[in-house]
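User: Can you help me understand a structure? I only have the sequence.
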Amino acid sequence: MSKTNKILGLKSLKVKYNGRYVGTLAMMKNGMIAFSYDDSWLEEGFAISPFSLPLEKRVFVPTKNYFGGLFGVFADSLPDAWGRLLLDRFLLEKNIDRDITVLDRLAMVGQSGMGALEYEPDYKISETSDIHDLDYLAKECGKILKTEHSSDLDSIFKMAGSSGGARPKILTTIDDKNWIIKFASQYDADDIGLQEYKYSMCAKRCGIEMTETRLFKSNTCDGYFGTTRFDRENNRDNIHVATVSAILEADFQAPCLDYNDLFKLTRILTRENNNEIENMFRRMCFNVFAHNRDDHAKNFSFMYDEKLDKWKLSPAYDLTYSNTYWGEHTTSVDGNGKNPGVKELISVGMKAGLKKGKCKDIIEEISEKVQEDLGEYIKDSTR
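Assistant: Let's start by predicting it. Here is the structure, written out as tokens:
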């Protein structure tokens, strides 16, 4: 990128997928961002968003403005919460005009976003080296959260500028594996890393698919939670991923879904795959019994397998003890967000096509394992 201290507002942007051109994003006069597929992609590609962007030769224009004028699948590439805070701080310290377009922000993501979508031009606004001292990184991230100056803002931005979620995190490579490593926010307990690690291990015991997880050592706390990225595979193309928020063009910042909606979506996208439906049922039960109420539309994703031409549930992520501002599950369970229980779980499962006996067995299994492994965290919770 040029050394100018002001980014000129982009009006159009190319979208790529593992080096292949997908299409073009273009800003309209009303601020909405239109999209059209390239002809070559129409011949050999796939619908990157199954409902909003079918594989057709036409200009698509968003009808909702939840994502700054973008379709949800492109908004998935943008950082939110921590990543957006980091980007705004970086722009401020570099004296770059923050009154930039959403297309400029996608250009800053370039090739570094989550999933497989890439953007051209690619503004490479930080070329510094990675830092591997996790305690130091945690301390510097804490400074940024407190609006204090960090002398290594460039490196932290390079390692985490495209990440989402509320907690500070970095994207890094360790032992030839792509990791996401999280640090505590100012609202977290000191043992948040250990807690999320225990939640991940319990989820795996409950039959929920997750990637490799690890508790990285620290000299200042119980450790930092890390999980390998499911959108990256060694020696293979990046994997296209879309959150439920993106697929349904749903505002994840507000309660907008019921688990009945998630199951309907799962059945449609996976073509009635029983294993995927059961896995979603296990996640719902785990979230209820483990008191994970931050189960919003961006905390569920689907991955596209281009070779098999089908979608599947991504591995689970962001599983930990959590409340919401309103004290209920962000995604309600058969209409009940405050205190869903066995009755609601069975009702949702049966509507999704699972047998009542199967639902009861899974509910009993997960309830027992959560109590055994996570009882110290949920003992004071009320449902």
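Now, to help you interpret it: Residues 356-378 form the longest helix (23 residues). Residues 1-5 have pLDDT under 50 and may be disordered. Let me know which part you'd like to focus on.
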